[in-house]
Write a structure and sequence with these properties.
This protein is 55% helix and 12% strand. With 103 residues, the protein is mainly alpha-helical.
Length: 103
């Protein structure tokens, strides 16, 4: 079963409301066990799951994007970028595993 953890660094999102609790790292799990990370269609599904998870995490930390748009946008961009970097690593690993099975 494959899963990866998406750490969301929200400290930069809280400059206006900096508190020790607000600056804490948030970890979100995005389940990819049911997906093939070598399949482009499944990658699109993973990216959708990442977007949903990061939006939810940022809403919980920052609040509604209607009331704190800049902080929400910063949080969302940073966490999505980090998640996509982790996804690329997982894709490379999945491709290597598939290649090893074929040989």
């Amino acid at each position: 079963m494959r899963k990866f953890t998406l750490p969301v660094f929200a400290a930069a999102c809280f400059a206006a409301i900096a508190t020790p609790a607000a600056a804490a790292e948030v970890t979100v799990r995005v389940d990819v066990a049911d997906l093939d990370l070598t399949n482009p269609a499944d990658i699109a599904v993973v990216k959708g799951r990442i977007a949903e998870a990061t939006d939810k995490a940022c809403r919980n930390k920052v609040g509604s994007p209607l009331f704190n748009a800049a902080a929400f946008e910063d949080c969302s961009k940073a966490s999505t970028q980090l998640a996509f970097e982790q996804l690329e690593k997982r894709q490379a690993l999945a491709s290597a595993e598939l290649k090893a099975k074929r040989t």
